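Q: What would this chain look like folded?
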Amino acid sequence: MLNVQDEKFWTYADYCQLPEDGKRYEVIDGVLYMSPSPRSIHQALSKYLQFLLYGLEQAGHGWVFAAPFDVIMPGATPVQPDLLFVGVQQRHIMGPANIQGAPMLLVEILSPSSARFDRVTKLNKYAQCGVAHYWILDPKARTLEVLRLEEGTYRLLSALEPGHHFVHPDFFDLKLDVAELFAQVPAELEDES
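A: My prediction, written as structure tokens:
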């Protein structure tokens, strides 16, 4: 994730004027950040997690969205998490162009350029905005961290690696299985670096 260094305080209106160039732009506390398009493994993992969360949508528990899709929250105008889930009780934050408010869940899939940004800047901003659940998927370490907001701070509910299973009590007993997740990724997409 690259901080686009300039002296400007970026707004959502400024963001909307950016070119559609295949890069992902986000604005946090008036600072513009840019990242290149995701790698193949990132897309494969995102697709599987989206499919997993889509089961909750089919059961009538809410809606799942995938990047690029804007989420507007105080000081985050916008962010583009890799995946998000809006619970049925949050229907009012969905709009035709974006989500306006804190979704029930935001998911970030780490890449070499975004790991620190996702683990520090976004984690702190998501907590500040009241996002109840934050999942961090690390393709290189083959781990999934499941975090829940408690008293303004994220608490680690589970750190999963292949062979671990977690049934999420806040997501209608959704079963998370990291081995199954990575089994969906073709060997050709694995990053050797």
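The domain at 38-189 is CATH 3.90.1570.10 (tt1808, chain A).
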